Amino acid sequence: MLALTGDALFAQRGLCEALVEARRGYLWRIKGNQPDVQEVLQTTFAEVAQCPPDASSVEKRDGAIETRRLWVDQLTAEYVATELHFAGAQQVARLDKLIHDIETGQDKCETWYLVSYDPRGPLSAADLLKRIRGHWSVENSLHPVEDRSWGEDQHMLRRPGLGPCFSMLLSMALTIL
User: Fold this and answer.
1) What is the side-by-side order of every strand in the sheet holding 91-101?
2) CB contact burial 148-161 (16+ within 10 A = b; e otherwise)
3) What integer best gives the mean pLDDT of the chain?
4) What pTM does this model have?
């Protein structure tokens, strides 16, 4: 089944509606561009770190040990879909990622909030974690090119709507080159 995965840039209600209508899945990371959804997810998963995760993985790569813990909630997803009008939301999740640098002993922690839809129905927590890993392996392969060579993260666009346009133009330029 084809499912689009993407960073917060793609977490747009209109795109979700179009994907649900076309019976295509999605998995989006939620950040500040969807503040109402982000607030609900942060509240839902506020105390979850004290509970065992629904799925987890540990990998060693590039001199670091990466531990991922995933918690999934379908009841909140129903609220996000109906009350916040985020089409198709079947599952919401919190992913805690701990990266332990073996050489320095330093730890880096990240927490991600996600919303997903699959026309076949909700995924198991393990399958959802695999889908997340699948996307970020592609993202991480592309990101160094865009960030290190093109300085993507140093661009500060303040006018609404310019971020997606800039990102698409940058991606097209990289494709052409």
Assistant:
1) 3-6, 25-30, 107-117, 91-101, 64-73, 55-61
2) eeeebeeeeeeeee
3) 85
4) 0.75
